[in-house]
Amino acid sequence: MDRRKFLKKSVLFGGTLWLPRILLPSDRISSSGKSRVVIVQDAKIFHNRHVDSDRLLNLLDLSMQTYFDVDVPLRAWRKIVHPGEVIGIKVNCLSGHGSTHKELVDAVVERLLQAGIRANDIIIWDRLNKDLEEGGFRINYKGKGPRVFGNDAVGFAPKLYVFGQAGSLLTRTITNLCDGIINIGLLRDHSIAGVSISLKNLFGAIHNPNKYHLNVGDPYIADVNAFPVIRQKVRFSIVDALEAQYHGGPAYMPQWRWKFGGLIVGRDRVAIDYTGWQIIESKRKAMGFRSLKEEGREPTYIFTASDSEHALGQSNPKMIETIKVTAS
Amino acid sequence: MNKHFSMIDQWPDKKKEGMDRRTFLKLASAAGLVMSLPVLNWSDGASVIAASGEDDRYVRKARYWKKLEHKQIKCQLCPRQCVIDDHERGYCGVRENRGGTYYTLVYARPVTYHTDPIEKKPLFHFYPGSMAFSIATAGCNLNCKFCQNWEISQVTPEQVNSFYMPPEKIAQMAKEYDAKTIAYTYNEPTIFYEYMYDTAEAGHREDVKSVVITAAYIEQEPIKELCKVVDAIKVDLKAFSDQYYKDVVHGELKPVLDAIETIHNQGRWLEIVYLVVPTLNDSEKEIKELSRWIMRNLGPDVPIHFTRFFPQYLLKNLPPTPVATLERCKAIADAEGLHYVYIGNVPGNPAENTYCPHCGKVLVERIGFTVRSMKIKNGRCPYCGTKIPGIW
Ligand code: SF4
Fold first, then answer.
1. What is the per-residue pLDDT across A277-328, written as a single tens digit (0 to 9) for each?
2. pLDDT tens readout for residues A223-276
3. Which end of chain A offers a freer environment for a tag, N or C, measured as fewer CB atoms within 10 Å?
């Protein structure tokens, strides 16, 4: 049996012996009041510079099972999606070669299908059709399989959402088409906002992101995430940290990228962004770069997102439970 | 203003209702509707026509920018001076870095065209009673919380229906519509600078003048250059305080004042509009300082219009400006010695008229955008012979 078939079976029948066993108390997601962030890494995820799809599915399962403390991936996915729903996958294709890995999206799609979401009820989306195509996705409005299109194809709902300093229209993909969103951002530096991980990825849902890069994106990135529809519909965040970028982002700059070989997952995208930011800072330090604060682009919007007005999650490291797991 | 947002639905909605949109579009197109109407409205309030999409006809190499390292560019058209990565756009949303070269995406791409009385701009000392063939594209380099045209100014070109209308076409249409001028208006024309510039030149070849309706948030070199090809500029001075520019407009005051002085020094006809927003920019001190600045730097003959605010867009928590506030602003400016102080957005107010600063007689009588009588002869008051500045 090939590895992928085995993985499929393991989802259905609970055969997860290949995963490292992680012992977690069952209440660690919320009873402590801390936000859980899971970082999984696999040193062998790249094979001849390409992502090993089987190992990636394995890694995704590892992250989800760890986060939800369950034995089989299906149980994890069933905690965030329900059969019959329409689920959007927000990718990030702004960086050409540095876009969300299609292999990761394929892995998520595979698990969504197994969790009872119909193929045509999965919508892979970003700002523009053009961006998606440059990121390696094929536009699919009506054909078999998941639908794939940009906001330019569906337009924006006419209601103006206002929170704090931000006022925006939202893509109809969020307002009209999807019941829930899986938010797949990247782990990367951003020349204006400091970092662009999971909070900023949702700028792809609004019609006017170009207006909200002032003042390192603070408070705009937090404000946009606080729009009620975004707050309610974004179910889970997965950061594609297979390759990450510690400087020169969001444009693809190969000289400042490194193979982190991992994923960062969780429900709390503020905690995820805080965690991702620290990873980028460590890498910058190791590579002899100044901190983002010293460069005048500390991503303070992460703190704003956790204030009482926004209440989007935790940015205090004492309130974040980080679990690191390395795939064997 | 109508809803302008475009979308192409090529699959059914989750909640489908009535005729599918593609069928409707086909029918509408067959009936000529798509060609004749700028926008079709759907029951959910959104609109459909044809998406602007990708189209190289609209893409031109931009002016005023420089290359930086790693394919970044720095735009030098407006004081925002955006530094833009490859694939990204500036704050205005209509200029894009493609592989280290900067392009405008709105050349020949108006989202609307309309023939308006020049009084609507408002320009009161520039061919009163004439018509202005008015165009706008998507985008703006500011984000005023009270914007009444945010549905075109705060969007990118792909999000709004547009036409392909090269400069020569605009000039020709203006002539056909019997418009004395082409007006670049509704959104901020600085951001479609290249298109505006070429259209002004095309207009002059057809003997059609050009007027610019702008917030003047523009760098010195481009405004100087622009003054060579346009005939009049109306500046929306949003306030006379940095704080207001920062909080309400997302810009800065100083470069705007510099641009106003440049326009004046270049000899272009200039009028100023000041939208009076209750409690935010209507203090006696601010109006006095503004009036003194105009007196000192531009002289008493530059018209200023204090116009009435109505709650819009992101500023809905304030009431419309009381007429008494506008009259107080006018009284302050009059007392500082300005000769032509108007009140706007209050149809029928006597301060819509032009009076001779010397003998006090009514020279141009207006109601709203309509000129009821025009008495200026050869640029002078027919009663006392005082020269009245403007282009008549
Ligand atoms: S014109 Fe647009 S891109 Fe250029 S500096 Fe101004 S806002 Fe930025």
1. 999 999 999 999 999 999 999 999 999 999 999 999 999 999 999 999 999 8
2. 999 999 999 999 999 999 999 999 999 989 999 999 999 999 999 999 999 999
3. N
**In the predicted model, is pLDDT for residue A59 greater than 60?**
yes
Contacting residues of A for B156, CB less than 8 Å apart? 207-208, 210
Alpha-carbon span B42 to B37, nearest angstrom? 14
**Minimum-distance CB partner of A176 among B3, B8, B14:** B14
Question: Is A319 in CB contact (< 8 Å) with chain B?
Answer: no
CA–CA distances in Å: residue B12 to residues A125, A158, B20, B22, B270: 17, 18, 7, 10, 52
Q: Do A213 and B91 touch (CB under 8 A)?
A: yes
Q: Report how far residue A110's alpha carbon sits from residue B270's, in angstroms, rounded to the nearest whole number.
A: 64
A154: chain B residues, CB-CB within 8 Å: 7, 9
Q: Which superfamily does B21-43+108-352 belong to?
A: Aldolase class I (3.20.20.70)
CB B356, CB B363: distance < 8 Å: yes
Are A214 and A220 contacting, i.e. CB atoms less than 8 angstroms apart?
yes
Q: Where are the alpha helices (DSSP H) in B177-274?
A: 193-205, 220-227, 242-244, 253-265
- Gap from B261 CA to chain A (nearest CA, Å): 28
**Neighbouring-strand partners of residue A182:** A89, A236
Query: What are the respective helix, strand and coil percentages of chain B, to the nearest 5?
Result: 30, 25, 50
Nearest-neighbour CA in chain A from B13: distance (Å): 7
Q: Could you read off the pLDDT of A7-25 as tens digits, one per residue?
A: 443 443 333 333 333 333 3
Q: Does residue B210 come out as left (phi exceeding 0), alpha (psi in the -120 to 50 range) or beta? A: beta
B1 lies within 8 A of chain A by CB: no
Q: How many residues does chain A have?
A: 328
Domain locations along chain A: 3-327
Cβ separation B7–A86 shorter than 8 A? no
DSSP per-residue codes, A37-93: EEEEE-TT-EETTEE-HHHHHHHHHHHHHHHHT-SSHHHHHTTT--TT--EEEE---
Q: What's residue B252's pLDDT?
A: 97
Q: Write a three-state SS string for B17-44.
A: CCCCHHHHHHHHHHCCHHHHCCCEECCC
Average the pLDDT over B313-321 and give the result. 94
Angle at B51 between CA B45 and CA B57, to 5 degrees: 145
